[in-house]
Amino acid sequence: MAEIVKTVKVEYLYLDLKSCDRCIGTDNVLDDVMIVLTPAFKIAGYEVVYNKVEMINEELASEYRFVSSPTIRVNGQDICKSVAENNCGCCSDISGADVACRVFEYEGEKYEVPPKKMIASSILQAVFGHSGKEDIGEQFDLPANLKGFYKGKRSKSECSCGDKCC
């Protein structure tokens, strides 16, 4: 009898891993959590797929239905139940526009970089406490905040420096 392989797909969607403290910090915390959880999932009979995807343009962001940076999804489900944001100086500097990025809410506190405990428990809850994939519907409009980021980033890359300032 063939063994049924279950999959845990973890996606990390972000705007920038070169200069954004929030994206870099979340990336580091998620890597640490995945180092611990992946062997446990494998022992439990799960195949783990872990992907990081930079949202380099509006088209890719729309394809992924990207609503805020950074985003962690498990089997298509955002680990955050809602989107809370505040001003992100790093992404604002990248684009030359005012950009708000995700704030992670956990146990009554707000974090720009989520704690390991929050990410680990959210991933486990998504795998073992959720019966199916999130219903993402048909229509998606990229949030104005992200449209502003991409527009500003394009404008900065068109400057006379030959793309050395971006």
CATH architecture: 3-Layer(aba) Sandwich
- CATH topology value: Glutaredoxin
Largest sheet strand order: 2-1-3-4
User: How are helices and strands ordered from N to C?
Assistant: EHEHEEEHEEHH
What spatial form do the alpha-carbon principal axes imply?
Answer: globular
Tell me the name of the CATH homologous superfamily.
Glutaredoxin
| Overall average residue pLDDT | 88
Task: Give the class-level CATH name.
Answer: Alpha Beta
Proportion of residues in helical segments: 25-40%
As a whole number of angstroms, the C-alpha radius of gyration is 17 Å
- Relative strand content: 15-25%
Structural class: alpha+beta
* Low-confidence runs of at least 5 consecutive residues: 162-166
Total domain units: 1
Q: Helix count?
A: 5
Distance between the termini: 55 Å
Largest sheet, in brief, is: 4 strands, mixed
Total count of strands? 7
What can be said about this structure in brief?
With 166 residues, the chain is of the alpha+beta class. 38% of the residues lie in helices and 23% in strands.
Describe this structure in words.
By secondary structure, the protein is an alpha+beta fold. It has a single domain (7-129, 145-155), classed as Glutaredoxin, CATH 3.40.30. It is 38% helix and 23% strand. The protein has 5 helices and 7 strands; from the N terminus they run βαβαβββαββαα. The chain has helices spanning 21-43, 58-63, 89-95, 116-128, 144-157; strands at 6-14, 46-54, 71-74, 77-78, 84-87, 100-106, 109-111. The strands form 2 sheets. It has a 4-stranded mixed beta sheet. Strands 5-6-7 form a 3-stranded antiparallel beta sheet. Strand 6 and strand 7 form a beta hairpin. Helix 1 (21-43) packs across helix 4 (116-128) and helix 3 crosses helix 5 (144-157). The chain is globular, with a radius of gyration of 17 Å. The chain starts with 5 loop residues before the first strand and ends in a 9-residue tail after the last helix.
